[in-house]
Amino acid sequence: MSETTPRAWDGAAYDRLSTPMQAMGLEVLDRLPLAGDETVIDAGCGSGRVTEALVERLPRGRAIGVDGSPSMIATARERLGDRADLHVADLLELDLGVEADAILSTATFHWIADHDRLFTRLRAHLRHGGRLEAQCGGQGNIANVHEAAEATIATERFAPHFASWQRPWLFAAPGETERRLRAAGFAEAEASLIERPVTPEDPHAYLTEINLGAHLERLPEPLRAPFVDEVVQRLGGGSITIGYVRLNISARA
Fold first, then answer.
1. If you placed Cys at 76, which of 28, 48, 57, 88 could pair as Cys (CB 3.0 to 4.6 Å)?
2. Alpha helices (runs of H) in the chain, residue ranges in sequence order
3. pLDDT digits (tens, 9 = 90+) for 86-98
């Protein structure tokens, strides 16, 4: 696999397991003041769980969902039908031909390494005065999971598969995020961190699809389940708590 190939997602599996992501996403949506007639882009809409709630907030408006994963968009289409405009697109190359009133994004930006370009593309899709309300993994996000994963990677069985691997995430700090937003043309920008620990009902399935998918793509199929098993054991086995740290972003164009 190319070092620059984006992670593949299983939209249906994500949809089954993403209740914690949905809960966090709905809190971000609640921060967005809407009259009901706006055009709003959900940037990184995933399987459409939060987009569905957005549609309900826009009885006279337009919801546009964008995700880089064809599987995610296919799952979102099953959920939403024609209630939202859905597009498979790279957010770094986004060109929808619209100026939206607002952009919503949850659990997405940390999968994009170039936040300068990302924020520039998002700013280009907002009218003057439009709002960006977002949340993603921030500095220190899921550090306990990554510590356990790195220890597992270092073992003889797995190490050869991770040689020269570039970790495909960016957990940014608030200050640098605010600077990037202003440099991209946002008139106002505020970012902060909040801890949001999650204890999944099925740790193995949750880690497989939500947290360790990029790791598992490096491995042949027979080694994937053993890798997750070892990470779970390093996290204590049985019931585990994942140390989410979310970066909240509020900005105005």
1. 48
2. 11-17, 19-30, 49-56, 70-80, 115-124, 143-153, 174-183, 203-206, 213-216, 221-234
3. 999 999 999 999 9
